[in-house]
Amino acid sequence: MRSKRPSSLSLFSSAFSPSPTVSYCSWTTTWLPRSEAPKPSITDRCIALFQSRISSVREVKQIHAFCVRRGAPLADPDLGKHLVLKIVCVSGPMGYAHQVFDRIRCPGVFAWNTMIRGFAESDDPRPATRLYSRMRASGVEPDTHTYPFLLKAIAKSTDLKEGEQVHSGCIKNGFESLIYVQNTLVHMYASCGDLESAHKIFVLMPERDLVAWNTVIKGFALNGRLNEALTLFRDMELEFVEPDGFTMVSLITACSELGALALGRRIHVYMTKVGLTKNMHVNNTLLDLYAKCGGISEAQRLFNEMREKNMVSWTCLIVGLAVNGFGKEALELFSELEREGLVPTEITFVGVLYACSHCGLVDKGFEYFRRMKEEFHIVPRIEHYGCMVDLLGRAGLLERAHRFIQDMELQPNAVIWRILLSACTIHGHLALAEVARAEIFQLEPKHSGDYVLLSNLYALERRWSDVQKVRKEMSNEGVRKAPGHSLVELGNNVHEFTTGDKSHPQSEAIYLKLAEITKLLKLEGYVPHTVNVFADIEEEEKENALSYHSEKIAVAFMLVNTGPGYNGKSRRKHQRQHGIIRFEQYFSLLGMLHRR
After folding, report:
1. pLDDT the model gives residue 543
2. How much is the pLDDT for 408?
3. Which of 103, 93, 11 has its CA nearest to residue 51?
């Protein structure tokens, strides 16, 4: 059925018709006889057009052009503000809006607010604060709408200093007590990482609506303060505020980032009970949680149960399967996606190429790369090139990987060269590693990981003088290696451990359990892989160094605090180099230790 919405041309002809009785024209004076109704001015006619249902920048520009041709005074504050508003409402270019705004004679607060709002919603929110300064300098006083728009822009640009100055202005002008100003203040401080100020404003609010609760919970969740976010959620329930999908998405996102799978599962159960899992966006967030935390079977089950799926859903599962080592399944799912007639995105292809890399499918990977460009007309991004270099590097085709980098259409960044350097370390290609290192040092000269990779490669070749040379260079340049750490989830808390860590309150019990684990592993036939300890020390010292690896400490902590039948997950924050067995296998020790 065709829409009855009038076309732009019919609107134009109606607005400029000599008849004064057009039904939608606001200027018609219905109480006068038809012959005595006053003829609307050109300004009123143009305003009526801007107040009509316009949905595209093209339509706005058409009306703008007619206004110019008819000689409408676009510098008039009333007409100018309507044109600016329409440009902003249809998400038009802010450069265009700014040009129109600069021609308005003495713009009022409405026009200023519209421009600030437009920049707040744009990709570059920084001009909003400059406009606010201009507004105050021109003598225009802010109103109740000014600060929410302005604070939203500052939250987006994460300029805490600017935000504090605007907060001061809110207080001076008496707007701080308004709930929507308070909500945006909480949002601004949380976005800038000042959670204490965000929480302080939240606590002092006499009235807290759902928006306020969602804002503060999301702020703590996205800043890694999961426990505080959960406490706030409990407080929210105690105050009988009903959570919505946005509340739960914030909590699920935090669980995804921290690897808190058990907690994520509990939140999922709660969401199912209250009927919040019917929303596709919520389900996509849950898919992301299970994929990032290694719960692939749960991710697949959720995906199959979803009544409605979009490309984000498919991409989430494809990438999740790929990064968790299920490359074959990821490629099968991509084939199913194609059979459904869906069009993959550039992110989907990152997952596909990653899957090829981890399955060693070099030819298939290059075929997908070709199809991405030629069949789907996707211009490769640096992430796609990175996957291809990784594909060749894992397959040991290092010279081919080097030629691929040299032939890239994009300028290779440090990450691309670092992938090659890592592959050279694995396959022992020292000459090419030094080439990659030289390129990296031109781009990111003080990245500690690059020094470590090269040092490790020299150590593998037993070139200890070169190892010392690299470490001395690190010291001279002030480069420090960030220690790798392991995260484990227990209850509602995520615990972090570094190599040789003794800061935990249970350290004594942890190290006693670690000694027990080491003894048991040796009885089971485990021999430490000391070749990966890149130091010129005795074999026994290397074994001791491996004993205090952060992942082993994390496992010992879990064994101390859990009983038989527990199935835990660990997240490593750097490449596992000394893996005795996979983490899941560590927990098979649990039954053995508890049976002893």
Report:
1. 47
2. 92
3. 11
What does the pLDDT read at residue 34?
45
Neighbours of 519 (CB within 10 A): 10
> What whole-number distance in Å separates Cα of residue 593 and Cα of residue 596?
5
Q: Tell me, what's the pLDDT at 19?
A: 37
- For 467, residues 6+ apart whose C-beta sits below 8 A from its C-beta are 455, 458, 459, 534, 536
Radius of gyration for the chain, computed over Cα atoms and rounded to the nearest angstrom: 31
487 has which bridge partners?
Answer: 496, 571
Which residue shows structure tokens 């983490």?
A: 583
SS3 call for 157: helix
The SS3 assignment for 367 reads helix
Burial class, 415, CB count within 10 angstroms (exposed 0-12 / middle 13-18 / buried 19+): middle
User: Residue 94 contacts by C-beta under 8 Å, 6 or more apart in sequence?
Assistant: 88, 118, 119, 122, 124, 127
Sign of the alpha-carbon dihedral angle for 261, 266, 268, 271: negative
Conformational region of residue 259, where left means phi above 0, alpha means psi within -120 to 50, and beta covers everything else: left
In the chain, the amino acid numbered 282 is V
Residue 42 burial by CB count (10 A; 0-12/13-18/19+): exposed, middle or buried?
Answer: middle
CA distance 569 to 584: 7
Q: How far does the chain reach from its first CA to its final CA, in angstroms?
A: 75
Q: What pLDDT is stored for residue 400 in this prediction?
A: 95
Count of H helices and E strands in the chain? 32, 3
pLDDT of residue 132: 92
**pLDDT (0 to 100) of residue 237:** 83
**Which helix (H) or strand (E) segment is 496 a member of?**
strand 493-498
- Along the chain (596 residues), what's the average pLDDT of each consecutive run of 10 residues? 44 41 36 48 80 83 86 84 89 90 91 93 91 92 91 92 91 89 92 92 92 91 80 87 85 80 86 84 91 90 91 92 90 93 91 90 94 93 93 93 93 89 85 85 71 71 73 69 69 70 79 80 63 46 54 80 56 38 40 39
Q: Which of 220, 284, 226 has the alpha carbon at shortest distance from 255?
A: 226
* Chain mean position to CA 154: 18
* Cross-strand pairs, 571: 487
Instruction: Count Cβ atoms below 10 Å from residue 444 Cβ, excluding itself.
Output: 14
Dihedrals phi, psi of 19, to nearest 5 degrees: -70, 130
Residue 448 · residue 479 · CB < 8 Å: yes
Which pLDDT does position 548 carry in this prediction?
60
Q: How far is CA 275 from the centre of its chain?
A: 26
The residue count of the chain comes to 596
d(CA 486, CA 481): 16
Helices (H), 412-562: 414-427, 430-443, 448-460, 464-477, 507-523, 539-547, 550-561
* pLDDT for the residue 469: 76
Please give the pLDDT value at position 107.
92
Residue 65 and residue 59: Cα distance in Å, rounded? 10
Range 209-247 burial, b when 16+ CB lie within 10 A, else e: eebbbbbbbbbbbbbebbebbbebbeebeeeebebbbbb
